[in-house]
Amino acid sequence: MKLESEGQSRAEKSSSSSERRPRVRRNVTVAIAQDICADRYPSGSPLPRENDLCELYGVSRTVIRESLKVLESKGLVRGKPRVGTTVCDRDEWNILDAEVLDWMGPYIKDFDLLGCILEARRTIEPAAAEYAAERASAQEIADLDKAWRQMRDSAGEPESFTDADVMFHTVLLTASHNQVFRRLSSAIHAALQYALHASNIAVENREDAVLVHGELVEALRMRDKAGARECANRMLDLAVRDLAAAEKAIGRSK
Predict the structure, then answer these.
(1) What start and end residues bound the annotated signal peptide (predicted)?
(2) Under CATH, which number does the domain 28-92 receive?
(3) What gap in Å lies between CA 145 and CA 132, rounded to an integer?
(4) d(CA 184, CA 85)
(5) Gap between the Cα atoms of 212 and 247, Å rounded
(6) Buried b (16+ CB within 10 A) or exposed e, 98-127
(7) d(CA 72, CA 53)
(8) What does the pLDDT read at residue 21?
(9) Each residue's pLDDT tens digit, 149-173
(10) How far apart are CA 45 and CA 107, in angstroms?
(11) Other beta carbons within 10 Å of 207
(12) Cα separation of 43 and 245, whole Å?
């Protein structure tokens, strides 16, 4: 019984350690990433040596190495033998990654990412809406209608509204039945989530957005290609307005 008890105790300690360790690594990864985003470690500059990072962040070399691997996989840093780890240029960062977007957080205005996402949507969504009016299946139109109803019913709840808003635009790109647009949908999902959330929490009245999304669903149902494109452009005009409010709010929070 004693041996069994000791074995169980070791197993529990091992389990506890394995549960804590990823959390520790994530915290350190976030801390280093946010220091990079804040230009504490500017692009092109070397990170401190591993031993110095251990001292700065209060963790072991193993945790530091694992964190640097995560950051390297997302394009923030690059490690070279006998050279060390260097911060990559911002153009190399995977800015469509959900974690990278979170790390950029309050510094996102410095990257003009919200404006870049809007430019991409200006190029893609009107065409996708026009194609969807011609090609969308009955189920895809039903899915868009469902997302629109969720937006309508949660207009006073920014988080739920954003979830429904993101779903709407994801389904719209899929309903275009354009393989490139479909791929772009998955690629920009995290960025779209961030952009729409920033816009939705910055404005108090979402009735205009609800109205035009509903009109787009109706245009698709009527197979009205010109009407669908016009609705998409109106949605993006609203997005310009909301983006200005979002950037103003981000500026205040900084």
Answers:
(1) none
(2) 1.10.10.10
(3) 13
(4) 31
(5) 23
(6) ebbbebbeebbbeeebbeebbebbeebbbe
(7) 16
(8) 46
(9) 999 999 888 889 989 999 999 999 9
(10) 19
(11) 9
(12) 29
235 closest CA partner among 140, 122, 102: 122
Same fold, 28-92 and 112-252: no
- Are 174 and 137 a contacting pair, CB within 8 Å? no
Inter-axis angle of helices 2-37 and 50-57, nearest 10: 100
Taking Cα atoms as reference points, which of 79, 115, 80 lies closest to residue 95? 115
Q: How high is the mean pLDDT of the chain? A: 85
> What value does the CA radius of gyration of the chain take, rounded to a whole number of Å?
23
Could you tell me the CA-to-CA distances from 113 to 61, 74, 108, 144 in Å, in that order?
33, 17, 6, 26
pLDDT tens string 180-217? 998 887 777 777 787 787 777 777 778 999 999 999 99
Pick the CATH number of 112-252 from 3.40.50.720, 2.60.40.10, 1.10.40.30, 1.20.120.530: 1.20.120.530
Q: Where are the domains of the chain?
A: 28-92, 112-252
Task: Give the span between the Cα atoms of 93 and 36, in whole angstroms.
Answer: 11
- Provide the pLDDT for residue 233: 97
Q: How far apart are CA 217 and CA 220, in angstroms?
A: 5
For residues 117 and 59, give the distance between their C-alpha atoms in angstroms, rounded to a whole number.
37
Q: What's the CA gap between 98 and 92, in Å, rounded?
A: 15
